Amino acid sequence: MSKLIKTAVIAGTPVDTQMGVEFIERKMQEAGTEPGFLPLYYPVSLDCDEQVKFQYTDDDGKREIMDVLFDGAIDEGARDFFIYCNSLSGSFDFDIYAVKKSIETGEDIRIYTPLQVYRSLGKEFSRVGVMAANNLSAHAIEEALMASCPDVYVIGTGNMAIVRMIEDGVAPEKIVEDCGLEEMAKYMEACGAEAIVLGCTHFPYFKDELAVRTGLSLIDPADRMFEALTEANC
Hints:
Layout: E1 5-11, H1 14-31, E2 37-43, H2 48-55, H3 59-75, E3 80-83, H4 86-91, H5 94-105, E4 110-112, H6 114-121, E5 127-132, H7 135-148, E6 153-158, H8 160-167, H9 172-178, H10 181-190, E7 195-199, H11 207-211, E8 217-219, H12 221-232
């Protein structure tokens, strides 16, 4: 990539939006290449409670908020949109929205979401554990996994308290211990899970701490989203 590509990072709260910005910056550093992307910061809500309310808002209400964010990012020069939020991805149809915005602007709008990753991930496993922020998100992830393989077996959980602890800066070790995440991983393994999907973009916060307590691989969909973003802009 020879130029800096403005990429809008859209997520549920200021905390996970900043996590998304830092994720893209870190991936570029790890690649050891010139900075190819300039991540732009676009949170949907002010906090977790407001984001949960957004997810249960009617479609017109969601569209009104998204229009403001997308139009602002497009005005800033963004054409790539990195949706760094599983529950947001599961509560709003970004695939249709990409077509709508492309027609409006006359330029291609590319959107990268966790659900796009899950639609292909179902082909790789027969049984998958899913740790999500809430059960609306867990349901959307299960649907996406089954879209690629109707026979995939999903063992899922949703716990918004974990997200709130991360937003409050609680140490990863304490979160894993206090929320029983090691026991949850053992339960998923006992049910035959071959891997665990971190079905919330907050959850890589404790990934390293959980990884040393389970033999199951922990899947962060953002890694594959970044691969798709990079390939699209080569």
